[in-house]
C-alpha cells in the first residue's frame, strides 16, 4: 500500500488513515521511525508496560541489577561460542 502525506512548515506529518488502520495505530500510541538508507520505516511500538506481570520470574532472578543481567548474558553467549 502506498499513501502520501505533506510535511508542514513545523516538520509535522499526519499519518494517513489507511496507514493508521493497517498498523492498528490509535490516538496516544507511540510510533518509531527507522531510517534505512534514503527512506524511513514507520512502525507502531508495542506497549511494554501492558506486558508487566505476564511472565513469572523465578525468585532467584528478581531484584538483579540490569548491568549484572547484561554481563552474565554476554559471558554465557561467549561460552556457547567456544
Principal-axes shape call: elongated
Strand content: 5-15%
Distance between the termini: 46 Å
Q: Portion of residues in helices? A: 25-40%
| Low-pLDDT residue intervals, each spanning 5 or more residues | none
Count the E strands: 2
Radius of gyration: 20 Å
- Major sheet details: 2 strands, antiparallel
SSE string: HEEH
Any chance you could write out the topology, listing elements then pairs?
Blueprint: H1 17-23, E1 31-36, E2 39-44, H2 66-81
Describe the protein in words.
- It is a single chain.
- The chain has two helices and two strands; from the N terminus they run H-E-E-H.
- With 82 residues, it is of the alpha+beta class.
- The chain has a domain at 56-81.
- The protein has a two-stranded antiparallel ribbon with strand order 1-2.
- The protein is elongated.
- The N and C termini lie far apart (46 Å).
- The mean pLDDT is 87.
Output the keywords:
single chain, 82 residues, elongated
Quickly describe the structure.
This protein has 82 residues and is α+β, with helices and mostly antiparallel strands. The chain has helices at 17-23, 66-81, and strands at 31-36, 39-44. The longest helix has 16 residues, at 66-81.
Amino acid at each position: 500500500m502506498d499513501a502520501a502525506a505533506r510535511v508542514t512548515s513545523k516538520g509535522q506529518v499526519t499519518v494517513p488513515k489507511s496507514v493508521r488502520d493497517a498498523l492498528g495505530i490509535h490516538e496516544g500510541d507511540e510510533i518509531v521511525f527507522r531510517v534505512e538508507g534514503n527512506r524511513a520505516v514507520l512502525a507502531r511500538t508495542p506497549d511494554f508496560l501492558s506486558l508487566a506481570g505476564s511472565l513469572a520470574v523465578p525468585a532467584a532472578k528478581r531484584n538483579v541489577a540490569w548491568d549484572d543481567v547484561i554481563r552474565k548474558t554476554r559471558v554465557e553467549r561467549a561460552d556457547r561460542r567456544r
